[in-house]
Write a structure and sequence with these properties.
Order of helices and strands: EHEEHEHEEEEEHEHHEHEEEEHHHHE
Number of helices: 11
Number of strands: 16
Helix content: 25-40%
Shape: globular
Largest sheet: 10 strands, mixed
Strand order of the largest sheet: 3-2-1-4-7-10-11-12-15-16
CATH class: Alpha Beta
Radius of gyration: 20 Å
Length: about 375
């Protein structure tokens, strides 16, 4: 069997795929390639289009399908990934197979010497549900994701997913801190980004944030933190960390109104692609993961701006066409207009303008 020595330029992305549109692997691949990564993809589903259209066709792949792919890559010495990204996985058995792959990659020899983490940087996006919608995958996926946490380098849950993973509710700043602490301490995750958080007005004021941006647009709040995790004998050790020792940062940025699919998938991909843990930073400077998040948000804001501009142009030219269509066709047309303009946003992906900066939470 050929050796699977990690290649510092290669990423494996395991998530959903659509023939038309931009979610999952379709949302992640082109941006990562623009950032200089060779991207190999494994599809967990293959659909005609995302499910927001209301009608779609295709297949969800089972664990044996993925296991066969990974086994063949292994035999040919093609498991050379230095980075790995996972998004939507349709069943607990698929998550289990992917977890087995992560363990295999972490046990590799790197350059003739044993690397405690096998030369792998792994971003886990635990796609399970959302606030207001609840869980949209089978509940038996949750314990498998919890088992996966200690093998991830970075996780990017939303608030609902962070609460599900920890079994704790985020109701204010203090409970948010305890959720972050549990993810670092019990689950041994080095880098956590909670991609969207809702806090009471009093807590927003404590951290210098607002409910709305200066121009009146609703604001979104993202928070993150990092923790040094010691590895001995290939196993992560529980850090001696207390809640008041957490170093938490936040970014506020405007929420773009309307339904857009693939935004979370693209954020995860851009964050992984922009993450450079070797970057030297001053003691009071932001962490490499916060800097990666700044760049990812800047690119997404540019992509969404381009997308909204196209939507406005298309909708101005609609006239009375929608009146002649039934409800299903109107929904399909609306979803088609709202697909992310990814290729048209090459400049924003490669050279984003950072407007919304991360800052430390000191409250």
């Amino acid at each position: 069997m050929a050796a699977n020595i990690p290649d510092p330029t290669r990423i494996l992305s395991i998530q959903s795929h659509v023939v038309s549109g931009y979610v999952g692997n379709r949302s992640a691949t082109f941006p990562l390639q623009l950032l200089g990564w060779d991207v190999d993809v494994t599809n967990t589903v293959q659909f005609s289009n995302h499910t927001g259209y209301g009608r779609w066709g295709g297949l969800r792949f089972d664990s044996s399908h993925l296991s066969d792919i990974f086994s063949s890559l292994d035999k040919n010495g093609l498991l050379r990934y230095s980075r790995m990204l996972t998004g939507y996985m349709p069943s607990a058995s698929v998550v289990e197979v992917v977890l087995g792959l992560v363990k295999k990659l972490r046990s590799r020899q790197t350059g003739g010497e044993q690397d405690e983490e096998g030369g792998l940087v792994y971003l886990l996006d635990p796609v399970m549900g959302d606030m207001g919608r609840g869980m949209y995958v089978s509940p038996d996926v949750l314990p498998m994701y919890q088992a996966m946490l200690e093998y991830a380098t970075i996780i990017t849950p939303n608030q609902f997913e962070a609460q599900a993973l920890t079994g704790m509710q985020i109701t204010d700043l203090d409970s948010l801190k305890h959720v972050l602490l549990k993810l670092h301490k019990k689950h041994k995750v080095p880098h956590v980004i909670i991609t969207s958080v809702e806090l009471p007005d009093a807590d927003l004021e404590r951290i210098g944030a607002q409910r709305n941006m200066a121009d009146g647009r609703p604001a979104m709040l993202q928070v993150g933190s990092s923790c040094e995790i010691e590895v001995r004998g290939g196993e992560r050790q529980e850090p001696t960390l207390e809640v008041d020792e957490l170093r938490i940062w936040s970014i506020q940025f405007p929420e773009v109104q309307g339904y857009f699919s693939g935004v979370g998938d693209m954020f995860a991909a851009l964050t992984l692609g922009r993450f450079h843990p070797e970057t030297k930073i001053a003691a009071d400077d932001l962490t490499p993961i916060a800097k990666a998040s700044e760049l990812a948000i800047a690119s997404l804001q540019g992509i969404l701006s381009n997308t909204c501009r196209v939507i406005d142009e298309l909708e101005r030219n609609l006239g009375g066409e929608e009146k002649e269509k039934d409800e299903v066709e109107v929904r399909v047309d609306r979803m088609r207009r709202r697909e992310l303009r990814v290729v048209q946003s090459k400049k924003e992906i490669e050279s984003p303008t950072i407007v919304y900066r991360a800052k430390w939470i000191t409250a």
